[in-house]
Design goal:
Length: about 80
Amino acid sequence: MTLLELKFELQQQCKDLINFRLERIQKTIADIEYSLKDESKSTSGDKHHTGRAMLQIDRENAGNQLREIEKVIHQGYVAR
């Protein structure tokens, strides 16, 4: 394998990893949003509020991860 081929292969693996992470974060966000909708149907008092708060925190963390991945993509480091 030449140096150029190695460089191309490493770039491709980085792109694949970023895209995999992007898809995983998007799925996590979708799952959290589904859980939030499901949680809103619950009426179990304090447990309901605690569950929603935890899901909101998870959603915020996933949103932060999504913004970081999008920043990498938009800076041109990874072409989708």
